[in-house]
Design goal:
Layout: H1 7-10, E1 26-29, E2 39-46, E3 56-57, E4 60-61, E5 67-71, E6 78-83, E7 87-88, E8 91-92, E9 95-96, E10 101-108, H2 124-134, H3 138-152, E11 158-164, E12 169-177, E13 180-190, E14 195-198, E15 215-217, H4 223-227, H5 240-244, H6 249-266, H7 274-277, E16 288-289, H8 297-303, E17 334-337, E18 340-343, E19 353-361, H9 367-370, E20 372-377, E21 386-389, H10 412-423, H11 427-447, H12 449-461, H13 465-497, H14 530-540
Antiparallel strand pairs: 1-2, 1-14, 2-19, 3-8, 4-7, 5-6, 8-9, 10-11, 11-12, 12-13, 13-15, 14-16, 17-18, 19-20, 20-21
Amino acid sequence: MKIYSKFLLTLSFFAFGYLANDACTNLIAGKKATTDGSVMITYAADSHSLYGDLSHTPRAKHAPGEMRKVVEWDTNKPLGEIPQPSETYNVVGNMNEYQVAIGETTWGGHEELLDTTGNSIIDYGSLIQIALERSKSAREAIQVMTDLVDKYGYASEGESFSIADKDEVWVMDMIGKGAEKGAVWIAVRIPDDAISGHANEPRIRKVDFNDKENVLYSPDVISFARKRGYFNGKDEDFSFADVYSTHDASTRRGCDARVWSYFRRFQPEADKYFAWCNYDSNEPMPLYIIPERKVSLEEMQQSMRDHFEGTPFEMTSDVGAGPYHVPYRWRPMEFEVDGKKYCMERAIGTQQTGWSFVSQSRDWLPDPIGGIFWFGTDDTNTSVYMPFYCSLTEVPKPLEKGDINTFSMDSNFWMNNWVANQAYNRYEPMIPDIRKVQGSLETAFQTTRNDKDAELKALYDAGKIESLQKAVNEEAALFANQATDAYRDLAIYLLVKFMDGNQKKTNEDGSFQLTEYGIPAYPSFPGYDQKYYENIVKETGDHFLISK
């Protein structure tokens, strides 16, 4: 295709300068853009040091004067305390009992706008958690979040938030004010029939500031930029993304390209924005697009496993993929040869993910049933998304807190890592076995939702809330144990099947073949792909030649 013609010419100009922790992805779909009418957002918490556990904060009543500790999400550093309201809500992961869900991606922005007072106590992670504890809608969450940073200061870098409820979904870009208290921010409602996303880049550009229903912003969002010398144009030309951050070759390709790859799945015309991601054009990719077809839950989950398949950024065919076509690249993301800088691709599916989710907020069901938090640990590509209702009050044991230095056979996070890290070495032969187990579990979880929804709805309508609660918790424990047990078995199976670089022969049901005398059949030797052998000869000439 013509839009890809400059791909090879521009490769050498890219350098990935963003920080390792600035590496999350959010995908978004409005309720008229999904096949079932749910509002969906996703989030991958990508960090090289984050353990994948399911957090939970129970609903609570608070006495006057009671204080809430604020602890920085990334570092566990105590930042301060704020007063509790009279009541806070049940929160499961990044979703609360009123079906409000929030995700984020970090983009940094102007370094001088990071808090320099030392007095700000609300970091981006606390901002999300506190908003979920105190909000019954997305709009209320935006109000809570912006009030918090105004009153207590914002202690993080530039950030984008996805904020959803059962009726609507918003994107909010926010950055601090340096030596001044608070933050400047702007929020845009994504149309119900649109899809959107952000991946470590601010995405809100020109807006209609008179559209009070769909555009919210801090009163000084433009005046502060003028005061700091970031902007001197007309108000109608103001672009938050371009004023408060920069968009060079590395950020476009390492960040916006992930959103582009999602867009093109559902709208072929989005292919034209490859030129923006590849630094061939300065026409920005829009905040949202109208998809050609609607997005299903399964497709949203698959989008979180994207490795740029079908694009020039595709990761399984270049030399970095090796002989087993591995769609992963180890850090660092940039390297230098002969004075020129080169890059590794940064896809949505990545090895350093601690946990991820796909949230569904559904307006046709009561809140305790309408919100489903599809949660998975470790790499999105190989993990299993397990459905947890937003009314969950007991974290399943395989998803309880742990750490990345302590291996556990009972941990969902560690079993997923065991499977994934084997596949990183032998991806092409192993991924079919992983897909069978992953697909079987997710299909079972998805196909039972209608019946489970109906069962829980009947309990809700009958006023049997305790029975509903018990059913929600019991199913969550069942699914978490099923997924963890299945991946423990899968990890052992992969170890046995691919031991020593060989491949054991299997029957149609996956069991290992035996000879007619009952002993294990002799394994096959799959070796490497032809390109690998050709590269050996290209690199070494006749060094390994048997006969001249």
